[in-house]
Structure to design on (173 residues):
């Protein structure tokens, strides 16, 4: 059984309950069985669960994004920060830089973001890798982060990286 949490809002009160989805349902009926005295049946529908469609963006500095990185994979969800160096409205392509490292950003899905060269932006999106190992981040979220202290930001990324390395090695040992 698959266990999920759902909030149910009847007429004038609400309660939270754990329910189970019967994985053996067929196309004609599925049953939701609530933990408690409630029982709900849903007809002509089956729940099909899959992995989350949207993954969180892993924080990474542009300098750490190279072909030898374990995050340098097709479709990896990343969060990157850098100064806008180039922007083509016609192609919906931007280039951010940070410490001499560059990354192309596909911004065609960002409608309300006003991009200005020289400003600092943070993007979350999926990495697309071309056959020549050139990478493009297909951005789904973008925001202006002017005023961020990039030195302090890089220090925090290093501390986070160290913590994650120690945390993983503690669990392995």
């Amino acid at each position: 059984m698959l266990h999920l949490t759902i909030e149910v809002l009847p007429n004038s009160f609400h309660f939270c309950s754990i329910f189970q989805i019967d994985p053996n349902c067929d196309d004609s009926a599925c049953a939701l069985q609530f933990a408690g005295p409630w029982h709900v049946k849903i007809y002509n529908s089956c729940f099909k669960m899959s992995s989350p469609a949207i993954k969180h963006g892993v924080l990474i500095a542009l300098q750490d994004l190279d072909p030898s990185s374990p995050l340098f994979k097709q479709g990896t969800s990343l969060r990157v920060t850098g100064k806008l160096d180039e922007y083509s409205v016609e192609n919906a392509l931007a280039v951010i830089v940070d410490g001499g490292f560059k990354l192309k950003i596909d911004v065609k899905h960002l409608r309300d973001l006003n991009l200005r060269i020289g400003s600092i932006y943070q993007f979350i999106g999926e990495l697309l890798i071309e056959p020549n190992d050139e990478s493009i981040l297909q951005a789904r979220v973008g925001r202006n982060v002017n005023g961020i202290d990039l030195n302090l930001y890089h220090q925090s990324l290093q501390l986070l990286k160290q913590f994650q390395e120690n945390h993983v090695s503690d669990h392995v040992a």
